From TrEMBL:
Protein species of origin: Caballeronia glebae
PANTHER family noted in UniProt: DNA UTILIZATION PROTEIN YHGH
Domain Phosphoribosyltransferase: 187-270
Protein name, as recorded: ComF family protein
Domain of life assignment: Bacteria
Family statement: Belongs to the ComF/GntX family.
Length: 277
């Protein structure tokens, strides 16, 4: 019989090797079961504890009750294919054989981005979700926005992006807020679309004034050189995610920076779009 000391390096004995093969799967099985029990417990707690719909206040286990979820998403509005601005049928314009409609501004002075998908107008009651996500860290709203953006994308003929990125915040704003609300939408959206997501590919290198306080032309100047690209975007189709699109100046500046770095195409995925009316 061979005797092994604690310092021995000869562990070729078949009995020892067999024992090791038995113990490792057993630990793995216990870990997997523990994780399964924890997941099941979280699911049961979420179903057992009462919650309220974020819009109407009725009891709901999800962020929105079934009625609000069915009523407020994907409102039937005609939108510019480029900037998602709501359009009246009387101002519809097409570009040559393009079957999609475009606003006059995008045809006369095209932005740097190619397409924009938006769920709805930035107005009550959905604006409540954007505010809750942006200022009160209600991250479940980001998941809801992502789910409906994915459904909207599945119903259109746009190509799938190579990578999804959030509109970045400046270091000062990210530190103050603690999170990027666009990333709360971008990450689950990329997972649903089964594409790569990257929160560090684009950075906001210049802290700018809040866009909501500025007029259109000042907004454009405000973000003209605010972004920088650190990742390799050459030849890629980039999907840019934001919670709210107002004038489009921020997304235009970001798309311009991406294309100057070699990006082939830029598509915006926007939860809510501010209308002109």
């Amino acid at each position: 019989m061979r005797v092994f000391s604690a310092s021995s390096r000869d562990f070729s004995d078949p009995a020892v090797m067999k024992s090791d093969r038995i113990r490792v799967p057993f630990r793995t099985l216990i870990t997997a079961r523990a994780r399964g029990f924890a997941s099941a417990a979280q699911w049961l707690i979420a179903r057992a504890l009462p919650s309220q719909c974020a819009l109407c206040g009725n009891l709901s286990q999800a962020l929105l009750c079934g009625g609000c979820d069915a009523q407020y998403w994907n409102e039937p509005r005609l939108r510019c294919a480029t900037c998602a601005l709501p359009l009246a049928a009387s101002v519809m314009r097409r570009e040559r054989e393009d079957l999609r409609v475009h606003c006059a501004a995008c045809l006369e002075s095209p932005p740097a981005f190619n397409d924009t998908l938006a769920l709805a107008d930035y107005r009550a009651p959905l604006d409540t979700l954007a505010v809750e996500l942006k200022f009160r860290a209600r991250l479940a709203a980001g998941e809801a926005f992502a789910r409906h953006l994915h459904a909207l994308f599945e119903g259109c003929n746009l190509p799938v992006p190579d990578v999804i990125v959030p509109t970045p915040l400046s270091r000062a704003r990210l530190t103050a807020r603690g999170y990027n609300q666009a990333w709360a939408i971008a990450r689950p959206l990329a997972r649903m679309m089964r594409v790569h997501s990257d929160a560090s590919m684009v950075a906001r290198v210049r802290h700018t004034s809040a866009q909501s306080r500025l007029d259109r032309e000042t907004r454009r100047r405000n973000v003209a050189s605010a972004f920088a690209v650190s990742g390799d975007v050459r030849g890629k189709h980039i999907g840019v995610v934001d919670d709210v699109m107002t004038s489009g100046a921020t997304l235009d500046a970001l798309a311009r920076t991406l294309k100057l770095s070699g990006a082939r195409r830029v598509t915006n995925f926007v939860a809510l779009r501010t209308p002109n009316d």
